[in-house]
From TrEMBL:
CDD domains: LuxR_C_like (cd06170), REC_NarL-like (cd17535). Residues 4-122 form the Response regulatory domain. Keywords: DNA-binding, Phosphoprotein, Transcription, Transcription regulation. SMART domains: HTH_LUXR, REC. Residues 151-216 form the HTH luxR-type domain. It comes from the Bacteria. InterPro entries: CheY-like_superfamily, NreC/VraR/RcsB-like_REC, Sig_transdc_resp-reg_C-effctor, Sig_transdc_resp-reg_receiver, Tscrpt_reg_LuxR_C, WalR-like. SUPFAM superfamilies: C-terminal effector domain of the bipartite response regulators (SSF46894), CheY-like (SSF52172). This is Response regulator transcription factor. The modification 4-aspartylphosphate is found at D55. Pfam families: GerE, Response_reg. The keyword Transcription applies. The lineage of its organism: Bacteria, Bacillati, Actinomycetota, Actinomycetes, Kitasatosporales.
Length: 223
């Protein structure tokens, strides 16, 4: 089954470029386009895409609010959102991740990165490069806890090993990298990650990373 993609951007030329890149792939099908967030909501309901390639800054309804409505409670389908941004350090990206985006990508990323990002997000993983994660969260360190505040009660539901895994997820490590760091198998890591998401009521690794910073478990700038 091909990955069904909805393109959302207020610039028709960019949508055309993305469509040309994606339709060259046998496992990806562009099922529709939208020029703003409101159109995106209508198209998601009508077309049931697997992945929404979402611009952030658009008229009528921006990509952050559209993402929140697409991925939030009572959503109409399983669509995942991959945010597109012009700037790699963008406060709106942080808001989009909090709103439920599964990751983000720069608009000028090479074609093969765009294709890979869509495949990764469609498979249920988070598309967020570790270096970008750290730079974004470090940039907005002033809006995050210093680490001196009491940790949320929900954090106490995690085992010691699950806390270790959460910290490594927050650093942007993959399952394979976490497995190597902790000297366990990838299967074990996947199990731990699943438990972390379930216990904390989080949807994916991106939300887990944001939670780790916002709770003070990981401090911006810390190694």
């Amino acid at each position: 089954m091909a990955i069904r993609v909805l393109l959302v951007d207020d610039q028709p030329l960019l949508r055309t470029g993305f469509r040309m890149i994606l339709e060259a792939e046998q496992d990806i099908a562009v099922v529709g386009e939208a020029g703003d967030g409101l159109q995106a909501l209508d198209q998601v309901r009508a077309l049931q895409p697997d992945v929404v390639l979402m611009d952030i800054r658009m008229p009528r309804m921006d990509g952050v609010e559209a993402t929140r409505q697409i991925t939030g409670p009572g959503r109409d389908g399983p669509a995942k959102v991959l945010v597109l941004t012009t700037f790699d350090l963008d406060e709106y990206v942080v808001e989009a991740l909090r709103a439920g985006a599964s990751g983000f990508l720069l608009k000028d990323a090479p074609a093969h990165e765009l294709v890979q990002a869509i495949r990764v997000v469609a498979a249920g993983e988070a598309m967020l490069a570790p270096s970008i994660t750290r730079r974004l969260l470090d940039k907005y360190a002033g809006h995050l806890p210093s680490g001196d505040e009491p940790v949320p009660d929900t954090l106490h539901t995690l085992t010691e090993r699950e806390v270790e895994v959460l910290k490594l997820v927050a650093r942007g490590l993959s399952n394979a990298e976490i497995a190597a760091d902790l000297f366990v198998s990838e299967t074990t890591v996947k199990t731990h990650v699943g438990h972390v998401l379930t216990k904390l009521g989080l949807r994916d690794r991106v939300q887990a990373a944001v939670y780790a910073y916002e709770s003070g478990l990981v401090r911006p700038g810390a190694q």
